[in-house]
Amino acid sequence: MYRKILITTDGSAVSQHTACAGVKFAQQMGAEVLVLFVAPEYQYPVYVEIVPPAYPSEVEYIEQMQRMGQETMGSVLRSAQECGLKHTCLTAFSDAAALKIVDVAEQQDCDLIFMGSHGRSGWGQLLLGSVTNKVLSQTSKPVLVHRLIREPGS
């Protein structure tokens, strides 16, 4: 039914559990997996003339976020390997995570977006995470929203 499933993760424990559930779902469907981590865009210092010495350059920031993306997606990729699935990972940069998720799903020809109902967006996401809500409203692709009954480790 689904050939290629986009699975998102933001690095939170809930998101990691959701992503691994996405891999299990992909295994049942016999689908390829694309794991996506969306990092925020580089923020230039407000006062460019006075850059603090510890402030990373744009290149350093991009390299750091690439490493963070690889670490974040590592357990999901290991899970996909263990399931014998064809898999790839991608770190993308955007301050509008939901729009980037939709764009990547379109560009990569994904049949389904698999994501959690809660990430690390805070207490205001009582029913459905804000990124998930925005993805649902911005895409015509099917979105499977995975919701954990209880927090990981409880």
From TrEMBL:
Listed Pfam families: Usp
Family: Belongs to the universal stress protein A family.
Boundaries of every UspA domain copy: 1-145
Protein name: Universal stress protein
Listed PANTHER family: STRESS RESPONSE PROTEIN NHAX (PTHR46268), UNIVERSAL STRESS PROTEIN UP12 (PTHR46268:SF6)
Cited SUPFAM superfamilies: Adenine nucleotide alpha hydrolases-like
